[in-house]
C-alpha cells in the first residue's frame, strides 16, 4: 500500500483532512509517518489551508504502535517521534479527531496536535507499562502537562484507558462530538484556525507536582509492580516533566525508552502479548471450522468449583441449570453464589439489579434429567474416576444430540471418561482453575476423539466467558498440574535435603511468584495433594506415600482451611512457621539418615524454576502442548508466574538453554531430550515455536 493510500489527503474548503487508513486498527507502522509528514508538508505549502484534521479511517483512530516494529533497527522503525516533533512545530492548528481508541503512540500523536476532539465513547490511554516499556514519543512529558502529575501517573502506571468524557473533564479532550465526528472536527478546526499563539502542550507547566506525589507513586509500585523497571522510569520521567524544560525531558525519554525496551522484562511481556494471541489459534483448525451455539449450560455439582463455573456463564448472560444430589448442598451452593455477587455489589462493581439478573438466570435442580435441553454440560464433582464415569454414563442417556459433555477434571484421563459414552466426539475436558469465577485460565483438554467443532466451540466459549483458553492434550495432570507436580516434588526434596519451607517459598517469591510451592499447597489444601499422591501410588502399585508432607496431613493439619498446614495462619492468612512442623521435618530427615545442608537461594531458585522448564520441554516433545508459548500462558494465568518473566519457557530462553541444561545436570537432574537438543544447537523455545510456523 502506497503512502498516499495509507494516509489519504482530502479537502473541505480551508481544512486539510489526513485520514489514516491502516486497517484493522490503524497501528503506527511503516507508511503512516511518511503519509502524515507528506500531508503536513502539503498543508504548510498551501496558504489556502488554515487548519489540519487528522482522523482514523475505519473503526478507530490509532490504537498504538505496531509492537512487531519494536525489534526493528531504530533507523527502520516508524518515526513516531519525528512525526510528533513536526506536529509540535507546525505553524497552523492541527486537530486530532478521535473515535474508537487512541492508545499508546495514538494518544501521543493526538497530544502532539494543537487540539483534540473525540466521540464520547472513545478510549484514551498509555498502556506501555503492560509491555514493560514507557511512552516514548512524548507521553511522559505531555500527559502530566495536560492532566496534572497525579492523573498522569495513574494512567501511565496502570496502563488503563479512560473514556473521552473523563478526558474532557481532565483537559485531555477539548470538545466532545456527538454527531458526525469528521464534520464536528472540521467545524472546530475552523473555529480555532486563527488562534495565535498556538496552545502547544509542550509550552505548558505541570500542575500538582509536589514531591510527595512522586514519593507516593514510588512507594505504590513496590506492591503493584514489584521488581519491574518501566514503572520506575515512568515516575522519573513524569518528575522531570515537572522540573526541567520540555526538550530536556523529551531527550531523556528517548534514552529511557530504549533502556526499557531492551530489557529482559520488556522482551518477556512482549512475548506474553503474542503468546496469548497465538494460544487462541488451534493447530490444525481453520477459521472456518463450524461452532455450536451455546444458549444454555448445565453444571453438575454446586460446590466451590461448580458454583464458580456457573458464575462465568451467568456473567456472560447464559442461563445455567445447576444440579446437586441433596437440597442442603444445593442451597449451600446457591448461597455462596449470591454472597459472591452481593459482595461485588457492595464494592460498587455491579448494581443490585445486576445481582438479581444473574441469579435469575440460575435454575437449581436435584434432577439430572433437567439438563436435557442444555447445549453444554460440565461435570464438576470430586476427582474420582468411578464417580465421573457413572455421571457420564447417565449423561449419555440424558443429554440432547450434539450437546457438549465436559469434565472439569484436573488430572484424570479424559479419554477414559469419554469411552463410557456413545458420543466420545462430544466429550472434552474444560479444566477451570480455582476460584473459577476469578482465575482467567481455562485448559481445554482435547481427547483423542473430540471433534473439531467441539474444540472450536470450546475456544470460542472461553472468550465469551472471558477466559484465556489454551488447548492441551491428555496426560496425567495435562500441562499445568503435571508441571506443578514435578515442581512440588522438587520443593519437598529441597526441604528433605536441608532447606526450610519458608526459604523455598521466599526464593520463588523473590522470582516474582505471589506464592511459593508450600504457600500454594496450604491454600489448595494439603489433603488434596496427599490424595493425589495416594491415588498415583495405588495406580502404579507402589506403597502409600509417607513423605514429610504426608505426615503433616496425618496430624490433621490440612492448610489454611484448618488454620494450619505447613504454616500457621490467623485471620489475616499470613503464613507463620510452626515449630512442631519443623520438628517433624527434622525427625523425618533423621529417619532417612539425611544430614541437612545449607542450600543457597540461587540453588533453590534454579532447581525449582528449571524443574518446570524441564517438564515443560518433555510436554512439548510429547505434543501435549503445541507451543512453548502455550505453556507460558498457562503458568501466567493459572499459577501466577510473573508476566515480566514471560513464563517458565521464556525465562529459560532468557537465562540461555545451555546454562539451564548445565545447572540441571549439576543438580542431578536429567535434561529432557528436547531441551538438551535445543541447547546443543544453540536454539531456544521461541525459535522452536517460530520454526513450527506459530
UniProtKB/TrEMBL annotation:
Which locations, inside or outside the cell, does it occupy? Peroxisome
Q: In which pathway does it act?
A: Lipid metabolism; fatty acid beta-oxidation
Note the superkingdom of the native organism.
Bacteria
Q: Which UniProt keywords apply?
A: Fatty acid metabolism, Isomerase, Lipid degradation, Lipid metabolism, Lyase, Multifunctional enzyme, NAD, Oxidoreductase, Peroxisome
User: Boundaries of each 3-hydroxyacyl-CoA dehydrogenase NAD binding domain copy?
Assistant: 297-473
By its UniProt entry, which SUPFAM superfamilies does this protein fall under? 6-phosphogluconate dehydrogenase C-terminal domain-like, ClpP/crotonase, NAD(P)-binding Rossmann-fold domains
Record-annotated 3-hydroxyacyl-CoA dehydrogenase C-terminal domain positions: 477-569, 605-678
Q: Which reaction does it catalyse?
A: a (3S)-3-hydroxyacyl-CoA + NAD(+) = a 3-oxoacyl-CoA + NADH + H(+)
User: Where is it mostly found?
Assistant: other
Its subunit composition reads: Monomer.
Protein's name in the database? 3-hydroxyacyl-CoA dehydrogenase
Tell me which species this is from.
Deinococcus radiotolerans
**High-level lineage:** Bacteria, Thermotogati, Deinococcota, Deinococci, Deinococcales
Amino acid at each position: 500500500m502506497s503512502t498516499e493510500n495509507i494516509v489519504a489527503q482530502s479537502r473541505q474548503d480551508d481544512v486539510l483532512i489526513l485520514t489514516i487508513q491502516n486497517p484493522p486498527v490503524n497501528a503506527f507502522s511503516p507508511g503512516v509517518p511518511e503519509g502524515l509528514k507528506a500531508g503536513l508538508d502539503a498543508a504548510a505549502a498551501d496558504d489556502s489551508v488554515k487548519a489540519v484534521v487528522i482522523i482514523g479511517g475505519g473503526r478507530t483512530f490509532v490504537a498504538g504502535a505496531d509492537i512487531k516494529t519494536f525489534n526493528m533497527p531504530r533507523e527502520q522503525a516508524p518515526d513516531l517521534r519525528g512525526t510528533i516533533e513536526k506536529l509540535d512545530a507546525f505553524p497552523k492548528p492541527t486537530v486530532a479527531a478521535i473515535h474508537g481508541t487512541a492508545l499508546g503512540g495514538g494518544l501521543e500523536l493526538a497530544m502532539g496536535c494543537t487540539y483534540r476532539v473525540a466521540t464520547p465513547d472513545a478510549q484514551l490511554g498509555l498502556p506501555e507499562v503492560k509491555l514493560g516499556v514507557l511512552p516514548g514519543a512524548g507521553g511522559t512529558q505531555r500527559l502530566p502537562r495536560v492532566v496534572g502529575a497525579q492523573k498522569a501517573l495513574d494512567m501511565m502506571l496502570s496502563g488503563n484507558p479512560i473514556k473521552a468524557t473523563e478526558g474532557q473533564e481532565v483537559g485531555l479532550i477539548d470538545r466532545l462530538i456527538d454527531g458526525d465526528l469528521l464534520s464536528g472536527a472540521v467545524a472546530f478546526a475552523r473555529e480555532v484556525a486563527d488562534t495565535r499563539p498556538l496552545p502547544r502542550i509542550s509550552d505548558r507547566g505541570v500542575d500538582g507536582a509536589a514531591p510527595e506525589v512522586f514519593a507516593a507513586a514510588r512507594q505504590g509500585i513496590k506492591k503493584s509492580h514489584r521488581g519491574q523497571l518501566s514503572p520506575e522510569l515512568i515516575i522519573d520521567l513524569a518528575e522531570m516533566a515537572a522540573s526541567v524544560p520540555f526538550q530536556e525531558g523529551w531527550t531523556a525519554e528517548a534514552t529511557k525508552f530504549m533502556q526499557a525496551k531492551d530489557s529482559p522484562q520488556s522482551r518477556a511481556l512482549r512475548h506474553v502479548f503474542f503468546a496469548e494471541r497465538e494460544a487462541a489459534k488451534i493447530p490444525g483448525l481453520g477459521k472456518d471450522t463450524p461452532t455450536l451455539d451455546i444458549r444454555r449450560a448445565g453444571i453438575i455439582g454446586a460446590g466451590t468449583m461448580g458454583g464458580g463455573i456457573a458464575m462465568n456463564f451467568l456473567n456472560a448472560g447464559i442461563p445455567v441449570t445447576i444440579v446437586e444430589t441433596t437440597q442442603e448442598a444445593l442451597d449451600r451452593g446457591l448461597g455462596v453464589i449470591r454472597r459472591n455477587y452481593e459482595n461485588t455489589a457492595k464494592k460498587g462493581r455491579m448494581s443490585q439489579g445486576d445481582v438479581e439478573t444473574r441469579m435469575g438466570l440460575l435454575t437449581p435442580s436435584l434432577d439430572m434429567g433437567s439438563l436435557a435441553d442444555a447445549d453444554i454440560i460440565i461435570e464438576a464433582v470430586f476427582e474420582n474416576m468411578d464417580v465421573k464415569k457413572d455421571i457420564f454414563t447417565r449423561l449419555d442417556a440424558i443429554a440432547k444430540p450434539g450437546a457438549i459433555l465436559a469434565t472439569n477434571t484436573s488430572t484424570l484421563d479424559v479419554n477414559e471418561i469419554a469411552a463410557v459414552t456413545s458420543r466420545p466426539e462430544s466429550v472434552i475436558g474444560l479444566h477451570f482453575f480455582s476460584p473459577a469465577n476469578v482465575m482467567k485460565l481455562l485448559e481445554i483438554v482435547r481427547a483423542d476423539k473430540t471433534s473439531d467443532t467441539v474444540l472450536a466451540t470450546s475456544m470460542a466459549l472461553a472468550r465469551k466467558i472471558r477466559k484465556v483458553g489454551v488447548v492441551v492434550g491428555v496426560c496425567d495432570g495435562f500441562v499445568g498440574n503435571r508441571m506443578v507436580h514435578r515442581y512440588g516434588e522438587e520443593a519437598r526434596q529441597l526441604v528433605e535435603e536441608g532447606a526450610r519451607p519458608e526459604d523455598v517459598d521466599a526464593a520463588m517469591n523473590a522470582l516474582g511468584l505471589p506464592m511459593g510451592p508450600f504457600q500454594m499447597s496450604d491454600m489448595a489444601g494439603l489433603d488434596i495433594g496427599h490424595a493425589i499422591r495416594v491415588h498415583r501410588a495405588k495406580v502404579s502399585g507402589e506403597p502409600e506415600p509417607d513423605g514429610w508432607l504426608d505426615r503433616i496431613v496425618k496430624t490433621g493439619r490440612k492448610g489454611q482451611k484448618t488454620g494450619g498446614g505447613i504454616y500457621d495462619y490467623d485471620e489475616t492468612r499470613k503464613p507463620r512457621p510452626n515449630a512442631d512442623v519443623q520438628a517433624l521435618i527434622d525427625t523425618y530427615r533423621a529417619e532417612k539418615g539425611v544430614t541437612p545442608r545449607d542450600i543457597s537461594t540461587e540453588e533453590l531458585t534454579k532447581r525449582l524454576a528449571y524443574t518446570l522448564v524441564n517438564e515443560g520441554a518433555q510436554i512439548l516433545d510429547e505434543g501435549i502442548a503445541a507451543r512453548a508459548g502455550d505453556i507460558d500462558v498457562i503458568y501466567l494465568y493459572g499459577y501466577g508466574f510473573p508476566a515480566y518473566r514471560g513464563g517458565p519457557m521464556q525465562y529459560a530462553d532468557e537465562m540461555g538453554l545451555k546454562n539451564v541444561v548445565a545447572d540441571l545436570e549439576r543438580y542431578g537432574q536429567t535434561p529432557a531430550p528436547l531441551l538438551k537438543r535445543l541447547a546443543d544447537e544453540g536454539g531456544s523455545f521461541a525459535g522452536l515455536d517460530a520454526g513450527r510456523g506459530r
